[in-house]
Every structure is written in C-alpha cells, then in structure tokens.
Amino acid sequence: MDHSTPILERLLGLHPKEIDLSLGRMQRLLDALGNPERHLPPVIHVAGTNGKGSTTAFMRAMLEADGKRVHVYTSPHLVRFHERIRLGREGGGQIVDDGVLCEALRTVEQINAGEPITFFEISTAVAMQLFSSHPADILLLEVGLGGRLDATNVIDAPLASVITSVSLDHERFLGNRIEEIAFEKAGILKRGAPGVIAPQEDAVRAVIERQAARVGAPLKIGGQDWMAHEEHGRLVYQDEDGLLDLPKPRLVGHHQFTNAGTAIAALRAAGIWPGTEATESGLLNVSWPARMQRVHAGEIMNHVPEGAEIWLDGGHNPGAGTVISAAMAELGDKVDRPLYLVAGMLTTKDPVGFFHAFEGLAHYVLTVPIHASDAGRTPEELADLVSQAGLIAEPKPDLYAALDRVSELSAGDVPPRILICGSLYLAGDVLALNGTPPQ
C-alpha cells in the first residue's frame, strides 16, 4: 500500500458530500497556503464532457516531443490517485512519487486543520502546491466537473481555455438541458485569454459564444476558425495560419482526429505550438489509458479465445457511446469480428442512452459489478437497462465469468472482438486486475 493512502482516506471524510460545487472553500485553503495558484507555470485550462483527457494527452505529447517540461492534472484516476498529478521533467514527465505526494498531503492537511472541504477540492489544492514548487514550462489543467464552480477555476489568466465536446452528463450537478451544461463549461473562459472550442452542436456553441462575448474572451471555433479531418488515412488540419498534413493519431477512433485538432488549435492559440515535427511525434507517440486501449497482454488474456481482441474504454455517457460505437464499427469495417460488450456502470449514468448506440452492432452484453465504487449498478439491474436499449444482456458476477461466457458464446466462430466499457472505475478494476496500471 502507498504511504499516501491513509492520508487520502482521512481527506475523504472532511465533507459529507463527494461533490458540492463551490469556490469558497477552495479559495480559503489556497489563501492559507500562500496562494500557490498565483505561482504556477503558464496554464492551459481544459473543460468538456468528452475528449478533454485525450486532448490534454495530445498537447502533452506534442510539447514533450519539443523538450518542454509539462505538468498535467487530470481526474479521475484509474488505479492509483498518483495518476492525477504528473510532474514535468526533462525527458518527459512522471506520475508524482509517493514520497513527494505524502509530504504535500501532510502539509495541506495540516493547514486545512479539519475544515470542511471536498476531496476533489483539497486534492486540487495539493496538486497546485506541487505544481507551484516544481519548475515546468506549462501546466495542462483539466477541469474535474463542469467548469464555472470547479475547484480548478481559480486561474485568473490562462494562456488559453479549451472546451472539448459538450453533451449530457452529470445532470444532477450541472443541469438537465444541454444549454445549462454548456454554460457551466463556458465558466472557464477569461477576459483576454483565447478560448478554443471543439466543434459543437448549435445550441452549445451559441451559449459559449455569448459567455465569451460577455467576459471578453476571443474564440477559435472548431469547424469555423479551424478544421481537422481525416483524408487518405492522415490528419489534415487547417486554420488561418495554413494547412498541416499530419500522420493519423495513434489513439483509435475517428473522434480522435477532432481531439488532436483541438490540441493543435489550443497550442497555436496559446502561442506555444511546437512546430510540425514535434506535432507529428506527439500524434504518433501519444498515450491515454482506457480510451480505446487495446489490451495485448496480462491475466485477462487467459480468459478469452486465442486470437480474440480486447479493447478497454471508460466512456460512460450517451455522447461517449456514440463515438465509441463508431470506433468499433470502423474496426469492424476493416476486420469483421463478432462484437461482445462487457459492461459496468454507475447509478448516476444513463445506460439506455449509452448502449442504444450499440444496437445492431454488439452481439451480446455481459454486465458485471464495479468494485472500485459503491455507486455501481448491480449486474442484474444493468442487464435490464441494457435490454431496454435493444440489446441482449446477461448478468455475471465478475469480469472473468463474463469473459468465460464470451468464450462459450463465440465457440467455433471467428475470434471475437471484446469491448470492456461503461465506466472509468471498471476500467481501473481491469487494469489493476490485469497488472497493467498506467505509467
């Protein structure tokens, strides 16, 4: 067990709610810490429903290919909390060391002195304390939830604010209408700082444009001011500064062309684009676990037929379902295999909306519990909801039982393609069980 684990467990008990959107508690603690948020490297702030992690990963890969030291803050983690904080170093950043994290946790815990604060707020304060005390060229700061009242939204003057694809998710906290959610995401826009937004549906774009005009943030809009698309198996990016003919992104799925384009647009708007060579290297070497990740080795491979493919994706809302199903369909167009889903999902998510995108594509769904969260649906409940989306579903007690069932169902057939999906918590369970945690 990491030495930081007992401290993290204590911090979980400082507030009765896991999520309580507010900036007051965060600002109080930052003031007591000497305002580390004012002493950070230049910041690119990233919000969005889907794609913000991949966009951040592309930016990191491109900047590191140019020799830059890049701090990165993302959430949630998959296996260890430490994954949320990556400290930039020459030769490439590294996930924060347990000893370094422990020291920062103790300092912040002591200064907070037991005052009520959510886990995400105090862990964000810890991250800012670390980012301010370790030199780097840039900080890529990912929003946790929403934007306007998110604990990361204490940055006054980012180099750029980025909003990736916006869709329905976390309605209990952000609103039931897409316009309400867009308003929360647009809360990260700051006066004078360029805002870069991925292509959005009209209602979302209109809300973001109004907020940008209100605060005085110049916008670079995907599909209007910049464009990124696939052409002959390559990424073509174009804006007012010219056209780039680039290699296909390493991350799988057509949506990754948009995420890569958003990353390029953000770096160009921020004035730190590293040039064509570093961009190409970043596209080819980027890594972002549990986002259309192909699993090639590990314990779980012993529970599937020889020649089977296993893919892992933590997407969990209807927008993610749409892009993930499209990615699986694209794989099917290249090499046709029967597709089986192994799925787990939290009670706060919309299974019918997510799985509807797989109707007619997936042969069978095996539902499993999520061990890393108390908010997971039972396999039986999830199977009923998946059936409502028009798919055949069967509950199983654990991942191995589900994979064994796929082996039975696909016996004598072409080796199957298996997608493990529905939750980042499930993805974390799988990577931990498989002995292949993020590095």
Automatic annotation (TrEMBL):
Protein name (database record):
tetrahydrofolate synthase
The segment(s) forming the Mur ligase central domain are 46-266
Per its UniProt record, the required cofactor names are:
Mg(2+)
Q: Which reaction does it catalyse?
A: (6S)-5,6,7,8-tetrahydrofolyl-(gamma-L-Glu)(n) + L-glutamate + ATP = (6S)-5,6,7,8-tetrahydrofolyl-(gamma-L-Glu)(n+1) + ADP + phosphate + H(+)
Q: What class of enzyme is it?
A: ligase
- Write down the EC number: 6.3.2.17
Keywords carried by this UniProt record: ATP-binding, Ligase, Magnesium, Metal-binding, Nucleotide-binding
Highest taxon above the source species: Bacteria
Name the lineage.
Answer: Bacteria, Pseudomonadati, Pseudomonadota, Alphaproteobacteria, Hyphomicrobiales
Annotated GO biological processes are:
tetrahydrofolate biosynthetic process
Q: Which GO terms describe its molecular function?
A: ATP binding; dihydrofolate synthase activity; metal ion binding; tetrahydrofolylpolyglutamate synthase activity
